[in-house]
Design a protein that fits this description.
It comes from Urochloa decumbens. InterPro entries: HAD-like_sf (IPR036412), HAD-SF_hydro_IA (IPR006439), HAD_sf (IPR023214). This protein is globular. By secondary structure, it is an alpha/beta fold.
Length: 269
């Protein structure tokens, strides 16, 4: 298992200049990613990494959808929402909740979800550090993919608005969806890259991290608000390989722990 990443204060000693863009961003944010009891870079065993797969909502884009309000409306009020949360161990998987509903009820549920998602698209914002991270991966010839439980229209708008393309980009129309490993395995197969040379990055333990772990990929949890608590407190079955509080910190995760090997030529076409 690779060393767990912890956040630490900025070092008092001045940093050498000039700094790469991602390190300037990290310093500006007042944080730095540190390795706990990590050996010197020359001594660390680095695994090859050829592909990065991202979640979209809450990872590449700033979260704007009021999910509790959406769940209450879909499920039929506070009591039904509370029951669904209790049954899900504190979280709600709304897509699985409605899978077995009668067609008319299911159609209404999807209409409510689509309305909330459309309102979210109107306020779509890219996550700080996303553009720089994608540029870094492109420079290293590392493949970029995307898996979201949002609809294809949302993915298309994301590509158009922010001028970056992820391929493959799998939306809710691809079944089964996260946390099933099928979408991640599909991307690995398309790239002709084994899962153990890929990392899944997302903001959800139950969807993104579980999907990555089940597929046999590395996993990185983006936890901006520390809602999941300390890394070491997470249950082993959902514990990611890495935990960061911003996309800027992902640069350090990749550079310190992996040999960033270009993807096979046939997977870059």
């Amino acid at each position: 298992m690779l060393p767990r990443l912890l956040l630490g204060p900025l070092a008092a000693a001045p940093l050498p200049l000039p700094l790469p863009l991602h390190r300037r961003l990290a310093v500006a944010g007042g944080i730095r990613v540190m390795s706990s009891a990590a050996p010197a870079p020359a001594q660390r065993s680095r695994r090859p990494l050829r592909g990065v797969v991202f979640d979209m909502d809450g990872t590449l884009t700033v979260p704007v959808i009021d999910f509790p309000a959406m769940y209450r409306e879909v499920l039929g009020g506070d009591a039904a929402y509370a029951a669904a949360r209790a049954a899900g161990g504190g979280s709600v998987d709304i897509l699985h909740c409605i899978e077995d509903w009668a067609p008319d009820k299911q159609r209404h549920a999807y209409e409510v979800i689509a309305r909330f998602e459309k309102e979210g698209l109107d306020r779509l914002q890219i996550m700080p550090g996303a553009s720089e991270l994608c540029g870094f991966l492109d420079a290293k010839q590392i493949r970029r993919g995307l898996i979201t439980r949002n609809v294809k229209d949302a993915v298309d708008l994301f590509h158009q608005r922010f001028g970056m393309t992820f391929s493959p980009a799998l939306s809710r129309e691809f079944r089964p969806y996260k946390p099933d490993p099928a979408p991640l395995l599909h991307i690995c197969s398309t790239w002709n890259i084994p899962p153990h040379e890929v990392i899944m990055i997302g903001d959800s333990l139950k969807d993104d991290v579980v999907c990555g772990k089940r597929a046999g990929a590395f996993t990185c949890l983006l936890d901006e608000t520390e809602r999941y608590g300390p890394h070491d407190s997470l249950p082993e079955e959902v514990k990611p390989d890495f935990k960061v509080s911003s996309l800027t910190e992902v640069f350090t995760v990749l550079e310190e722990n992996f040999d960033l090997a270009p993807a096979p030529a046939e997977s870059r076409t």
